[in-house]
Write a structure and sequence with these properties.
Oligomer: heterodimer
Number of strands of chain A: 0
Strand content of chain A: under 5%
CATH superfamily of the domain at 56-239 in chain A: MetI-like
CATH architecture of the domain at 56-239 in chain A: Orthogonal Bundle
CATH topology of the domain at 56-239 in chain A: MetI-like fold
Distance between the termini of chain B: 41 Å
Radius of gyration of chain B: 23 Å
Number of helices of chain B: 14
Order of helices and strands of chain B: HHHHHHHHHHHHHH
Shape of chain A: globular
Helix content of chain B: over 70%
Number of helices of chain A: 13
Number of strands of chain B: 0
Shape of chain B: flat
CATH class of the domain at 56-239 in chain A: Mainly Alpha
Largest sheet of chain A: none
Structural class of chain A: mainly alpha
CATH superfamily of the largest domain in chain B: MetI-like
Strand content of chain B: under 5%
Distance between the termini of chain A: 34 Å
Helix content of chain A: over 70%
CATH topology of the largest domain in chain B: MetI-like fold
CATH class of the largest domain in chain B: Mainly Alpha
């Protein structure tokens, strides 16, 4: 399919055929063909069976929970992500290097470890969880817990998306704006924000995509109760793979919907990046 | 007056950042260590030397090393293809390479089960190959399955890091070298590689971190504790056992992974620092 496409301008750099062959072969074998199996599996279902499987109350509820919590976490991450990136780029204070170096901890720390640790921290076995409980907030085993876990895994996406843009933004721009009499809020709104918007959207999209599909860090703190609506989509799929109540059709149907959501988001992120890069090149 | 209010805002923002940083990133690390050694040193070392833990460590290392080698090779080849040549469908190809990055790891596991599992369409094919070679290789619920799932979730990690660098570098140098008769491999080694060196290392570090920590994808295709479990799966099994002893053991094994995560972060910062210094030269 792609192999047959012709080079527009014939390159004199060697290796086109070989790299194309290897890339397409590995991509197909390791990623595309297995994913196509999920499609094939769900296409075995009739439309009625498919809609019946994905409109079951617990499935719909899982989608609502995953999307709602991922959205809430992504918004929270945008707020804290902008503050963190701003502080790291513009200010000097003791411990700044350490903070900058540890932003990616959620990428480096295995999700299962993060999951059980956050659960113990925020449930009544932990100092923080007990304090919150006394204040009337039950963080663990609720949607709040799911959002906490998703904030944890999503924060590096937003900070690392905005940081390079802020670094390139000259401070003189803000100074000029302040000197012309603009308030700090107005300077942020009309000078800084438009510059970081594409990066912020990218970070938001990546954090959201990660949150919607997240499994490891979420499943311990969520409590996975159908009654409380704390099952996430990944959990529902995984339940259908467990020995004893294997339901591959159901798993494939839910996975297909989740895949479509992910693709739409990937597509949106690519468009944002494309538009942003055109704007800066112009 | 103005100066003062500016300072107030500055310290408020720093304060918010520090609180968020301590609460969300630093505290969890100490929580793991604290809980790991809660029952004393002997319990801690016993948890780390348990048969299941040792086996899980081996499987984790195997999967990580293979995923790293495969994805490094793929990443370099794909980045070369995408940045040195113009062809139709290039954007589609780049998007397809990034797929594993944005889909749920559980789907990755599911995809392999539906390809190679009991009712998977490729299973008869694998059976044939096993029959021919006299082997008994299974691609799900086995160590190879764990390796495949790990490769899947880390697939784009390295190409993602090198492609922007090669884009920025352009292809003039390679074209000049090619005109002077250098072979493809020589061009790569002498011209391209020095440019991507740090980016490549950075991508490899991220790939390693994700590979040894992967949970969802591996969980779907690995069911035999002590045989095909990785460290995160062993932690899950200990934690879900629910007794306070086994939860302490889960945190003891977790402390191993925290150690690995800290090493990864230190490496990552060294590489970033070196890359920045090189840029400034």
């Amino acid at each position: 399919m792609k192999k047959g496409s012709v080079t527009k301008t014939k390159s004199i750099i060697p290796g086109f055929g070989m790299t194309m062959g290897i890339t397409v072969a590995m991509l197909s074998l390791l990623v595309l063909i297995p994913l196509a199996s999920v499609l094939a599996y769900s296409f075995r279902l009739s439309w009625q069976e498919f809609t019946e499987l994905i409109t079951r109350p617990n499935v719909v509820q899982a989608f609502v929970t995953s999307i709602f919590c991922a959205l809430a976490a992504a918004v929270i991450n945008c707020v804290f992500g902008v503050i963190l990136a701003w502080v790291l780029v513009r200010y000097d204070f003791p411990g700044k290097r350490l903070m900058d170096g540890m932003i990616e901890l959620p990428f480096a720390l295995p999700t299962a470890v993060a999951g059980i640790t956050l659960t113990k921290m925020y449930s009544n076995t932990g100092f923080l969880g007990r304090a919150l409980e006394r204040a009337g907030i039950g963080a663990a085993y609720s949607k709040t817990g799911i959002i906490i876990a998703m904030v944890f895994i999503g924060i590096p996406f937003v900070v690392r998306a905005i940081q390079p843009v802020l670094e390139k933004l000259p401070e003189s721009l803000e100074e000029a704006s302040t000197m012309l009499g603009a308030s700090r809020l107005k300077t942020f709104r009309s000078i800084i924000f438009p510059e970081i918007r594409p990066a912020l959207l990218t970070g938001f999209g990546l954090a959201l995509a990660r949150g919607i599909g997240e499994y490891g860090s979420v499943i311990y703190i969520s409590g996975n109760s159908e009654k409380n609506g704390t099952q996430v989509v990944s959990y529902v799929i995984m339940q259908k793979l467990n020995a004893g109540n294997v339901d591959y059709e159901g798993a494939a149907a839910i996975a297909l919907v989740l895949l479509i959501i992910s693709f739409l988001m990937l597509f949106a992120i690519n468009i944002i990046q494309h538009v942003a890069s055109r704007r800066t090149n112009a | 007056m103005k100066k003062k209010s500016e300072n107030v805002v500055k310290w408020i923002l720093i304060g918010i950042s520090v609180v968020f940083f301590l609460l969300m990133l630093v505290w969890p690390l100490f929580e793991v260590i604290f809980r790991a050694v809660a029952d004393g040193w002997e319990t801690y070392s016993a948890a780390l030397t348990a048969d299941n833990t040792v086996s899980a460590l081996q499987v984790t290392l195997i999967a990580t090393v293979i995923a790293l080698v495969v994805n490094t090779f793929f990443g370099v080849v794909a980045a070369w293809l995408v940045t040195k040549f113009d062809f139709r469908g290039k954007n589609v190809l780049s998007t397809l390479i990034d797929i594993p990055f944005s889909i749920s790891p559980v789907i990755a596991g599911l995809a392999y089960i539906m390809t190679f599992g009991r009712s998977g369409w490729a299973t008869p094919l694998i059976d044939k190959i096993n029959e021919l070679l006299g082997t008994d290789i299974s691609l799900v619920f086995s160590v190879p399955g764990v390796v495949l799932a790990t490769i899947f979730v880390t697939f784009p990690f390295i190409s993602r890091e090198i492609i922007p660098i090669l884009h920025a570098q352009g292809k003039d140098e390679e074209e000049a070298a090619s005109m002077m008769g250098a072979s493809g491999f020589t061009i790569f080694r002498k011209i391209t590689f020095p440019h991507i060196k740090w980016g490549l290392l950075y991508g490899m570090i991220l790939c390693t971190a994700r590979a040894f920590g992967e949970f969802g994808a591996v969980y779907a295709v690995s069911k035999a504790r002590g045989k095909t479990f990785t460290l995160p799966l062993e932690i899950d099994a200990l934690y879900m056992a629910g007794s306070s002893d086994s939860i302490t053991q889960a945190f003891a094994v977790s402390s191993l992974l925290v150690g690995m995560a800290v090493i990864v972060l230190v490496f990552k910062n060294i590489v970033e620092y070196k890359a920045k210094k090189k840029e400034e030269e």
